[in-house]
Structures are given as structure tokens and as C-alpha cells.
Amino acid sequence: MSIKENFCPKCGGETDNEGLCNKCMRSTLEWLVCQPRVECICCPTCDSMKKGATWSDVPYDQKKLAEELAIGAMSVHNDVQDLEVGLVSLVELNPNRTLCTVFARGILYEKHVQKSCDVLIVWRREQCDRCGRLSGGYYESTIQVRATNRRPDLYERIRVDKIAHDVEDTVQEAGDRLSFITRIDDIRDGVDIIVSSHSIGAMISRQIVTEMGGKITRHPKLVGEKEGRKLYRVTILLRLPQFRQGDVITYKNRYYEVRGADKGFLRVFDLKEGNTDVLHDESEYRLIGHVREAETADVTYIDQDMAGILDPVTYEIREVKALAWLKLSDHEKVRFLRDPEGGGIILVG
Ligand SMILES: [Zn+2]
Ligand SMILES: [Zn+2]
Predict the structure, then answer these.
(1) Are the C-beta atoms of residues 108 and 79 closer than 8 Å to each other?
(2) Looking at the CA of 19, which ligand is closest?
(3) In terms of DSSP bridges, do strands 306-310 and 317-321 run parallel, antiparallel, or are they unpaired?
(4) Where are the domains of the chain?
(5) How far is the CA of 20 from the centre of ligand 1 (A)?
(6) How close is the Cα of 13 to the center of ligand 1, in Å?
(7) How far apart are CA 13 and CA 132, in angstroms?
(8) Ligand 2 centre and the CA of 69: distance in Å?
(9) Ligand 2 center from residue 9 Cα (angstroms)
């Protein structure tokens, strides 16, 4: 076996290479090149970043972003193997300038090499598309939450508000930057949720109906044209059901607690039999109250299928049916509502 003897044309040393020896190749090759200056456009309000013409949310702080931009400003020659890059130091010169020193190391022609370079990050502030829309009160859709033959109560208003914000969190996390709640107005007749996109409007209204029941009707309106596209605004009228979960109603001399409402029927709990049922005839119901408003009475005695309870207002003993599902026992408590017509006592558990 014969080794070809070559001589390096630069230093004259022996080498196996055709041409420069490894040492001379290493010293002449500019294997690390850094862009000395990188500009980054950020929104002063929400820290979004603009790349080309598109804005996106950056899921970390400015220091992390500076490091990433500085590392992205490095170009390393392909012959460097086992490449490792990282940050040496980061200095915030002023609010608009961050100086990063970054390093690259690896193996070049069989020997370790290491170099560092400085990259100046220049921050430019510009209001992003989302903040522009937010500050301008931009909206595409209004969800009018109302109730059938009544006004939504405080609990429903709070729940609607929470559902809307939960949906907003979900779509923002999914990266839909331009879907947000512009405003929520709590008004006498209900709640108006004003949103920035048709898609979030549809999602919020669907979620409210899924959780609380009710019906939706949509009313689109042409408001203009932009870049050849017709612009619509949609008013979504959402009617919550007439009866809420927990309402106690009477129908054909029986009392029921409402468990839910679907198209054309009510799911109820029969307060006499202690089982669930479905009712269909909406017009015949009379509202007694809500289980949340129930009073509490002491059970004073039980006598076979009858029981005595102490009326907390009049301090009279009222005799009621000891319904099996209530599993009453004396000296315990039971909750009840009063029927305003006739003053009867309705045990709700
Ligand atoms: Zn050489
Ligand atoms: Zn912004």
C-alpha cells in the first residue's frame, strides 16, 4: 500500500489532500458568517411579531425572541460537523436595540473549531392587525342573547359571559388571531356579545345553545365591499328557553323540576314520583320558582306516608306527603317552595 505524498501549495507541509492541507483550509475558510443587524417588527401592545406581511403571536418573551433571531442570523458552512450553536450574551442597549453575541462550534476538517459573532437586533414598533381592529372596535357579528317570554337572569348572564370568554381563549390559543370579543354589553333585555369574526360568533352561539339550550336565528346584512369581497355583518338572535334548569313548574296539578329544554319539549323531574319525564305542551305550564330560591324547613315527625315540617315563617307545623324519593327522616331538613296560588308546599329535596 502506497500513500500518495502531496504538498500543500500554501504552507508546503505534507498532506493527503489534493490542494491545501486541512490546517490551511481551516484558516482560509470563512465558515461562520453573521448578519450584523436584524430588524424585527413587533406590536407594542401585544408583542405580536410581523414576518413579511403576516403577524403572528410569539409564545415567549423578547429575550427569547432576540436569541432566536440572532441564531437565525448565522450561516455556517456545510463542512462543519457536530454543529452546536448558542447564546454567549445578550445586552439590552436601549428599548429599541438588543445586542446578542452568539457562538457556533463543531468539527472542521478533523479539528474542533469555535467562533462567535455579534448580531444587533433592532426592534421596530408597529400596531398589529389585531390591536388595530381591537382599538377601532371592529366587529363582524353581534350575538343577542335573550330569553323566551322573560329576561335572562343574573346566573345566565354570568354563564353566557364565561362561555364567550372560554371560546375566545380556545380560538386565540389555536392561533386564530383575528377572532376575539370586541365588547360585551349587559343590557336590560339580555346580553349582547359583539365579536370580530363570523367564525367566533358562530362558535360562541353554538356553545351557549349546547350548554344552556335555546334557539338561534341568523340575520346577515351587507355593509359594504372591500377589495372585491362583499362584507357582511351577522346578527345572531339567541333565545334561551322559557324555563331554566332548576325551575319548578306545575302542569295538570303536578309539580316538576326542569332539567333541560330541547326543541319542543322539556326534560323534567317529577317531584311526586321522583323520576324523570318529558313534557311537550309548552303553553300549559305555570312557573312556581327556582330551586335556588327554596326555603329550608325542619322535619318534625314522620307518620307512615305523612310528615310534619316546621314552617320557618309562621312556625306552624305543616303536614305534607312523605314522598318516597325524598327519603325524609325526622330532625333532618328538607327544602321546599311555596305555590303562590293556594300557598301549597312543594318539597324539592
Ligand atoms: Zn498548508
Ligand atoms: Zn398587537
Answers:
(1) yes
(2) 1
(3) antiparallel
(4) 31-127, 137-240, 255-347
(5) 5
(6) 6
(7) 66
(8) 20
(9) 59
At residue 1 the predicted structure's pLDDT band, cuts being 50, 70 and 90, is very low
Residue (of 226, 224, 229, 147) closest to 191 by Cα position: 147
Residue that is written with C-alpha cell 322573560 in the block: 150
Question: Model confidence over 225-236: pLDDT tens digits?
Answer: 888 888 899 999
- The cell for 35 is 448578519
Q: What is the CB neighbour count within 10 angstroms for residue 219?
A: 11
pLDDT given for residue 2 in this prediction? 47
- What is the whole-number distance in angstroms between the Cα of residue 44 and the centre of ligand 2? 7
Give 273 Cα–ligand 2 centroid separation in angstroms. Answer: 58
Which one-letter DSSP state was computed for residue 63? Answer: H
Give the helix/strand (H/E) hosting 213.
none
What one-letter code names the amino acid at 110?
Answer: E
206: amino acid identity, one letter = R
* Closest to 134 (Cα-Cα) out of 48, 222, 60, 45: 45
C-alpha 119 – ligand 2 centre gap (Å):
26
Asked if residues 212 and 258 have their Cβ atoms less than 8 Å apart, the reply is no
Q: How far apart are the C-alpha atoms of 291 and 347, rounded to whole Å?
A: 10
Residue pLDDT, tens place only, 14-23:
888 888 999 9
Report the pLDDT value the prediction gives residue 68, as an integer from 0 to 100.
93
Residue 292 has which C-alpha cell? Answer: 335556588
Rounded distance from Cα 29 to ligand 1 centre (Å): 13
CA of 182 to the centre of ligand 2 (A): 14
For 348, residues 6+ apart whose C-beta sits below 8 A from its C-beta are 248, 257, 271, 291, 294, 335, 336, 337
pLDDT digits (tens, 9 = 90+) for 273-288: 999 999 986 678 899 9
Three cell numbers, residue 68 = 432566536
Ligand 2 mean position, distance from CA 181 (Å): 15
> How much is the pTM?
0.68
User: DSSP code of 24?
Assistant: H
